[in-house]
C-alpha cells in the first residue's frame, strides 16, 4: 500500500511568539523549527509501523513550504519516509495548501493520506478535511487508533466526552492525534539514509486562497497572581465566589 | 442573505457548544441586519422551538434516522444544500469534534473561506475579519475571509450563551438521501461525567500527586464543583490517568471558566492547552513553579493538605 503523510513545519513548542511588519508577520528571528508534533509522533510513526507490518508498503511525505522546510522533511525521511515531495509555496491559506496536497495525492494513488490533528502554530485543524473533500474521500478526524485488515480500516476517533469506532474501506484521509503511536527518535542509520532519499520539489498547481491574515496580536498579560495562605482556603473560596464569580 | 447555524447533537440532545454557536450566530445576524436560521440533522428529543430564546427564528430539521450518526460527507452535503435554500452567506459551527470534521469539507464544497477557532464576533465594518487563537493560545490572529460565503467555527467556551425570549419555527428539511461510507461500529462514552471540552470547571492534577492512588481527592473536588477532571502529559504517559484527560499542546485544548491546577509545574506546553481558561487557580508547594505566573489565584502549599480543605470549604459554600 502507498501512504502519503502530510508534514508541516512549526516553531519549536518553547519558541518566543512575536510579530514584525506592523504585526502582520510572525517573527522568525531565532526560532527553531520542528516537525509539527502531531504529524511526526502520530501520523508519521503510525505510517512507519504499518510499513513494518507490511514491508511492501511505501511511505511518501508531502510538505507545502519554501526551501527552509527541507531540514524538517529530511528529518521526517530519517524517521522512516521513503520519498518526499515539497510543493514550493509559502502559503498559509488552508484551502490553497489542501489543494496542493490533493494534487499530489491524486497523482500518487494512495490508500491512506495521513495528517496531524492540527498545526500548533495556525491551529486550523482543517487541512485533512479539505483534502478529503477535494478527493471525494471519507475523512476520519482526530483519530487515536488505526488498524488495517486488508482493505478495511478500523479507526477510533475522539468525540465529545468519549470515542467512537469507525469502519471504512480504503482509500481514506485520516487526521492523527495522541494514542496513534509513540514518539520515536531517528537513529544514525536513518539519518544517513535520509541524505540520499529522493526529495522532489514541484511547483504549486493553480489554486485560490480564500483567507488572508490581516494581523496578529498577543493576549493581554495577566494582572498577576493573588496568593492566599495555605491555611486560609476559605479566603480562596470567597475570592472565587465573590470576585472572580467562577464558583 | 442569512446566517445559518449548524446545531450539533449527541444522543438526541443539543450540545452546550451549539447553544453558544446559536447565540453567536444570532448576534452576528443582528449585526448584519439579517435573520438567523439553524439546521439540525438527525432525530432530536430536546424541544427545538425553545431554542428560539437564543435568538434563532427558524430551525430546519431533517429527522431521518440515517442521519443519527454524524457522517462528515453526508452532513457536509446536507448543510451545503440547506445553505443554498436559505441563501446563507455565513455558516456557523462550533469548533468541536463535529465542527472539525465537517466545516473543512463544507469550505471546499462551497468554496467558502473558513475560520476555525473563532473567539469573537466578526468585524464586519470593512470586509469580514474574524479573531482566532493561534500558536496554541499564545497569540491571536485576525483572519480576513475573502469569499462571498463565509464559514466560522466558534471555539467552545469562547462566547457566552445568552437566553432571552422567543420560540423558533421548526420546518422539515429534506436532506439528500445517501448512504454513509463510514460505519460507526461503537460509541464509548464515560457516562455521568462532564465532557472535558464542554466543562465550565476543570480540576487538573500533575506529577506532584505522586501516583494514581492519590486521585481520590481530585475526583471529590471535581464532583463538588460539577467539574471535569484533567491531567498533565506525564501523568497520562505513566497511565495514572486515561489519555483523554491529557491537556496541553499535544493533548486537548480547553477554555473553561475555571481551571484548577494541582501539583502541575506549568510547563509552556501544558499552558498552551489551558491558557484560554478565564480564571486559573494553582496549588503547588513550590513558590517558584512557573504556573504561578499564568495564574489568577494561587496557594503555595502541599496539595495533600490543601485540596481536601478546599473541597470542604466549597461544599460549605454550596451547602452540599
Ligand atoms: C513537544 C512537547 C509537547 C508537550 N506537550 C505537553 C502537553 O500537551 N501537556 C503537558 O502537560 N505537558 C506536555 N509536555 C511536557 C511538559 O514540558 C512538562 O514536562 C509537563 O507538563 C510536566 O508535568 P507536571 O507539571 O505534571 O510534572 P512536573 O514538571 O514534575 O511538576 C510537578 C509539580 O508538582 C509540584 N508538587 C510536587 N509535590 C507537590 C505537593 N505535595 N503538593 C503540591 N505540589 C506539588 C512540584 O513543585 C512541581 O511543580 C510536552 C513536552 C514537549 C517537549
Ligand atoms: N504546509 C503544509 N504542508 C503539508 N502538510 C500540511 C501543511 N500544513 C498543514 N499540513 C497538514 O495538515 C494538518 C492540519 O493542519 P491545519 O489544518 O493547518 O491545522 C497538519 O497536522 C499537517 O499534517
Description:
The complex is a heterodimer of chains A (247) and B (320). Chain A has 247 residues and is α/β, with parallel strands linked by helices. In chain A, 29% of the residues lie in helices and 32% in strands. Chain A has a single domain, classed as HUPs (Rossmann fold, 3-Layer(aba) Sandwich), CATH 3.40.50.620. Chain A has a 9-stranded mixed sheet, sandwiched between helices. In chain A, strands 2-5 form a two-stranded antiparallel ribbon. In chain A, strands 3-4 form a two-stranded antiparallel sheet. The N and C termini of chain B lie far apart (50 Å). At the A-B interface, helix 1, helix 3, helix 4, strand 9 and strand 10 of A face helix 2, helix 3, strand 7, strand 8 and strand 9 of B.
Structural class of chain B: alpha/beta
Strand content of chain A: 25-35%
Shape of chain B: globular
CATH class of chain A: Alpha Beta
Provide a brief overview of the structure.
The complex is a heterodimer of chains A (247) and B (320). Chain A is an alpha/beta fold.
Amino acid at each position: 500500500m502507498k501512504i502519503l503523510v502530510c508534514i508541516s513545519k512549526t516553531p519549536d513548542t518553547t519558541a518566543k511568539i512575536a510579530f514584525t511588519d506592523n504585526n502582520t508577520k510572525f517573527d522568525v528571528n531565532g526560532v527553531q523549527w520542528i516537525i509539527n508534533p502531531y504529524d511526526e509522533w502520530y501520523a508519521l510513526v503510525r505510517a512507519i509501523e504499518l510499513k513494518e507490518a507490511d514491508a511492501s508498503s511505501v511511505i511518501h511525505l508531502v510538505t507545502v513550504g519554501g526551501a527552509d522546510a527541507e531540514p524538517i522533511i529530511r528529518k521526517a525521511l530519517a524517521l522512516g519516509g521513503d520519498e518526499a515531495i515539497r510543493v514550493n509555496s509559502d502559503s498559509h491559506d488552508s484551502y490553497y495548501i489542501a489543494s496542493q496536497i490533493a494534487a499530489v495525492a491524486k497523482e500518487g494513488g494512495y490508500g491512506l493520506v495521513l495528517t496531524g490533528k492540527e498545526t500548533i502554530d495556525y491551529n486550523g485543524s482543517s487541512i485533512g478535511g479539505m483534502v478529503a473533500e477535494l478527493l471525494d474521500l471519507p475523512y476520519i478526524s482526530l483519530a487515536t487508533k488505526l488498524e488495517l485488515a486488508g482493505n478495511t480500516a478500523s479507526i477510533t476517533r475522539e468525540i465529545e466526552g468519549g470515542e467512537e469506532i469507525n469502519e471504512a474501506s480504503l482509500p481514506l484521509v485520516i487526521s492523527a492525534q495522541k494514542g496513534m503511536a509513540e514518539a520515536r527518535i531517528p537513529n544514525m542509520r536513518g539519518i544517513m539514509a535520509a541524505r540520499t532519499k529522493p526529495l522532489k520539489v514541484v511547483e504549486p498547481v493553480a489554486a485560490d486562497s480564500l483567507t488572508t491574515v490581516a494581523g496578529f496580536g498577543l493576549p493581554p498579560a495577566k494582572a498577576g497572581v493573588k496568593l492566599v495562605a495555605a491555611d486560609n482556603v476559605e479566603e480562596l473560596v470567597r475570592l472565587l465566589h465573590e470576585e472572580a464569580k467562577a464558583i | 442573505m442569512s446566517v445559518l447555524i449548524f446545531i450539533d447533537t449527541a444522543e438526541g440532545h443539543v450540545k452546550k457548544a451549539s447553544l453558544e454557536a446559536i447565540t453567536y450566530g444570532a448576534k452576528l445576524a443582528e449585526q448584519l441586519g439579517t435573520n438567523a436560521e439553524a439546521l439540525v440533522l438527525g432525530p432530536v428529543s430536546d424541544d427545538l422551538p425553545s431554542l428560539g430564546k437564543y435568538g434563532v427564528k427558524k430551525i430546519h430539521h431533517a429527522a431521518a434516522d440515517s442521519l443519527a450518526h454524524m457522517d462528515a460527507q453526508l452532513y457536509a452535503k446536507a448543510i451545503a444544500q440547506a445553505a443554498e435554500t436559505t441563501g446563507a452567506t455565513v455558516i456557523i459551527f462550533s469548533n468541536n469534534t463535529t465542527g472539525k470534521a465537517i466545516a473543512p469539507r463544507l469550505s471546499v464544497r462551497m468554496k467558502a473561506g473558513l475560520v476555525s477557532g473563532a473567539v469573537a464576533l466578526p468585524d464586519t465594518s470593512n470586509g469580514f475579519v474574524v479573531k482566532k487563537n493561534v500558536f496554541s493560545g499564545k497569540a491571536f490572529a485576525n483572519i480576513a475571509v475573502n469569499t462571498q460565503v463565509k464559514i466560522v467555527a466558534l471555539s467552545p467556551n469562547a462566547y457566552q450563551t445568552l437566553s432571552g425570549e422567543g420560540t423558533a419555527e421548526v420546518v422539515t428539511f429534506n436532506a439528500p438521501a445517501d448512504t454513509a461510507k463510514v460505519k460507526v461500529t461503537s460509541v464509548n462514552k464515560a457516562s455521568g461525567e462532564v465532557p472535558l471540552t464542554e466543562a465550565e470547571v476543570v480540576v487538573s492534577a500533575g506529577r506532584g500527586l505522586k501516583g494514581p492512588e492519590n486521585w481520590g481527592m481530585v475526583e471529590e473536588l471535581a464532583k463538588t464543583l460539577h467539574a471535569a477532571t484533567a491531567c498533565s502529559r506525564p501523568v497520562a504517559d505513566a497511565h495514572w490517568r486515561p489519555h483523554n484527560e491529557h491537556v496541553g499542546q499535544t493533548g486537548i485544548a480547553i477554555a473553561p471558566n475555571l481551571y484548577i491546577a494541582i501539583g502541575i509545574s506549568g510547563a509552556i506546553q501544558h499552558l498552551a492547552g489551558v491558557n484560554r481558561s478565564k480564571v486559573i487557580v494553582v496549588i503547588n508547594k513550590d513558590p517558584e513553579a512557573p504556573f504561578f505566573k499564568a495564574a489568577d489565584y494561587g496557594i503555595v502549599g502541599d496539595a495533600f493538605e490543601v485540596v481536601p480543605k478546599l473541597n470542604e470549604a466549597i461544599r460549605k459554600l454550596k451547602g452540599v
